[in-house]
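Consider the tokenized backbone below.
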């Protein structure tokens, strides 16, 4: 029986492409994926910021509208209309029912501008803060 000899030059154990090439190629792939991930994250954050800017502008517009409504609702003529609509009669209090609170100052200054203290009226009298 004859033995068939294999050509050992065709079956060399060395790789056709050196190992450092695969390392560099793998590193480049990792860097490319990291770049794409960061780009997508930045794009998502930018999109979210633009949405928040639109939402902020809308909320500011609503605040202006509500302030305008409140200012018109608390006007004297509007209050009178509401009182008439709900059939409420209100009059100004008598002079004897009015309690006047004077600001007490520790030392009156020559210019008459002393720092006022807060005062609160109570049922039993006047309380100083």
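A designed sequence for it:
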């Amino acid at each position: 029986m004859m033995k068939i000899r294999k050509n050992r030059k065709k079956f060399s154990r060395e790789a056709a492409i050196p190992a450092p090439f695969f390392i560099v190629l793998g590193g480049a792939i990792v860097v490319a994926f990291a770049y794409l991930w960061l780009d997508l994250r930045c794009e998502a954050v930018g999109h979210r910021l633009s949405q928040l800017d639109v939402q902020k502008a809308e909320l500011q517009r609503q605040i202006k509208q509500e302030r305008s409504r409140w200012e018109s609702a608390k006007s004297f003529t509007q209050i009178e209309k509401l009182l008439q609509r709900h059939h409420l009669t209100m009059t100004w209090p008598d002079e004897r029912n009015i309690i006047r609170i004077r600001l007490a100052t520790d030392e009156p200054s020559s210019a008459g501008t002393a720092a006022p203290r807060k005062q609160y009226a109570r049922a039993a009298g006047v309380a100083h803060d």
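The two ends are 120 Å apart (CA to CA).
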